[in-house]
Design brief:
Blueprint lengths: L1 H31 L5 E7 L5 E7 L6 H4 L13 H8 L7 H7 L3 E3 L6 H4 L4 H7 L5 E3 L1 H5 L3 H6 L4 H23 L2 H17 L1
Parallel strand pairs: 3-4
Antiparallel strand pairs: 1-2
Helix pairs in contact: 1-4, 6-9
Length: about 200
């Protein structure tokens, strides 16, 4: 209950404070390439329940038909504004709406698409999906430049499933078992520091 109240208060404050920034970003996306401002995609949430995540659109509208679900390096499907939005993780800010709706938390395992959740080992799946997914978490901070790692792989999707995903799941399982409000606050502060340093 305390974590949920913490999420609600901080997400509401962040949305109010960032409203002008979000409006400017929406206009930049609209004028950059044809298509919607937001990208919505089905993800797996707490208890295995499906929900649709909100992001600012950073790829061409037909991106899903033109390549894998993982993003590789300077992916040709990414728009001009999308490179900048992804670098500073600004594309993730609309997920504050998902926090308010109860589908997500500020801190928690990053939600995956069903295709990759199908590769979770049963024991790790149960532990990782026992908590609400989050906008940030220790695993995503450790792999903040995973797109560049995937760019050097001969088969990026296989690299993600066989190398990156198992490591991230171990981090996420530990988070699910040990998380406290204090540790969430430290993750949020570390996230801000890393993004500012970029």
């Amino acid at each position: 209950m305390a974590k949920r109240l913490f999420d609600l208060m901080l997400a509401a404050l962040a949305l109010a404070a960032l409203a002008p920034v979000l409006a400017v970003v929406a206009l930049v996306i609209k004028f950059d390439t044809p298509g919607p401002v937001f990208f919505r995609q089905q993800r797996v949430g707490r208890g295995g329940r499906l929900f649709r995540i909100h992001k600012f659109r950073t790829m061409q509208v037909d991106a899903p038909e033109r390549g894998p679900e993982v993003t590789v390096g300077r992916d040709a499907r990414i728009t001009r504004s999308g490179h900048w939005l992804r670098h500073y993780r600004i594309d993730e800010l609309p997920q504050l709406l998902d926090v308010l709706s109860g589908h997500m938390s500020l801190v928690g395992p990053r939600p995956e698409v069903p295709r990759y959740v199908a590769h979770y080992p049963p024991d790790l799946r149960e532990r990782v999906l026992s908590v609400r997914p989050g906008i940030t978490d220790p695993a995503s901070l450790e792999h903040i430049d995973e797109a560049h790692q995937l760019a050097s792989a001969s088969d990026p999707e296989r690299e993600y499933i066989q190398v990156i995903l198992p490591t991230k799941l171990q981090h996420q399982a530990r988070y699910a078992e040990q998380a406290t409000l204090g540790s969430d606050l430290r993750v949020l502060l570390r996230t801000v520091r890393i993004l500012l340093s970029r």
